[in-house]
Amino acid sequence: MNNTEKIPLTEAVFYILLSLFSPMHGYGIMQNAKELSNGRVNLGPGTLYGAINTLLEKNWIMSFEGEKDSRKKEYVITELGKSIVQGELLRLEELLANGKKVIGGDTK
Amino acid sequence: MKHVVRKAFYDHEKEEKWINEMSAKGLALTDVSWCRYVFSETINNEYSYRIELLDKLPTHPESKAYINFLEENGVEYVSSYMRWVYLRKKSSEGDFDIYTDIDSKIKYYKKINVFWTSVMLLELVAVLINLIVSMTHTKFFNINLIFAFLLFILVIKFWSLGIPIRKKIKELKKEKSIRE
């Protein structure tokens, strides 16, 4: 993994990658990100389109050749993408653990 | 019933606001050409509109792929004028923002800034040509000097259109330094 891949993922990218553990089209990703975050994360179509193209270039996701009759383009995460998510989870766990250590487990 | 309104805008944000105000009154934009807007009657506030500047003309394959993606995602392509596209979404489907994170917003505002700066530089070249002509060809002195002056007003106009855009980019970059 090179240095650029150790940079924290943006929220948009994190939720896109998470969504694509099962094949999905753009609209599905938007809905899924919204649902997972209880309506907090709202992916605009321009933001999503730019992110999908960058992730395809980086080979973190790929086009999914699913049902032939489906007009909408679907995408799915690659093995590389999965390892990126794993790395990000470790980073987030570290943040969480350190946060709890300092201010305690109570969020109140 | 169709309504045709002739109106000129320089500022696309004011234009977008006006189109949304028309939509709130039950007039939905259906077609755009130079200084000409066509609306059709519908229920009040049926659509939310956004105007977006594309990288390429709407007929270019890259733009077509993007517009196709938008249409798959509940956004309707209404019309275009040069590289500007007019998009709408049913208001009942919630907020309509094309760019929702800091990075993509900065990238988009930079594109608009480049657009207005290029237009301004083109006008500036035209000002200089007229000044040179007015100085070297004395018999056309007056008319070219007048042209140069009128074009210079446009230079200032296009420069000022970029001011709020550049301010937004600066603010977003500041935000980005402390949060995503």
Provide tags for this entry:
heterodimer; A: about 110 residues; mainly alpha; Arc Repressor Mutant, subunit A; three-stranded antiparallel β-sheet; about 55% helix; B: about 180 residues; alpha+beta; 2 domains; 4 helices; 6 strands; globular
Give a structural overview.
The complex is a heterodimer of chains A (108) and B (180). Chain A has 108 residues and is mostly helical. Chain A has a single domain, classed as Arc Repressor Mutant, subunit A (Orthogonal Bundle), CATH 1.10.10. In chain A, 54% of the residues lie in helices and 9% in strands. Chain B is α+β, with helices and mostly antiparallel strands. Chain B has 2 domains: 92 residues, no CATH class; 75 residues. Chain B contains 4 helices and 6 strands. In chain B, the strands form 2 sheets. Chain B has a 3-stranded antiparallel β-sheet with strand order 1-3-2. In chain B, helix 3 packs antiparallel against helix 4. Chain B is globular. In chain B, 21% of the residues are buried.
Report the uncertain regions of chain A: none
Helix content of chain A: 40-55%
- Count of folded domains of chain A: 1
The overall average pLDDT of chain A, rounded, is 88
**What is the H-and-E element order of chain A?**
HEHHEEH
Q: Output the CATH homologous superfamily of chain A.
A: Winged helix-like DNA-binding domain superfamily/Winged helix DNA-binding domain
Q: What is the count of helical runs of chain B?
A: 4
The CATH architecture term of chain A is Orthogonal Bundle
* Strand element count of chain A: 3
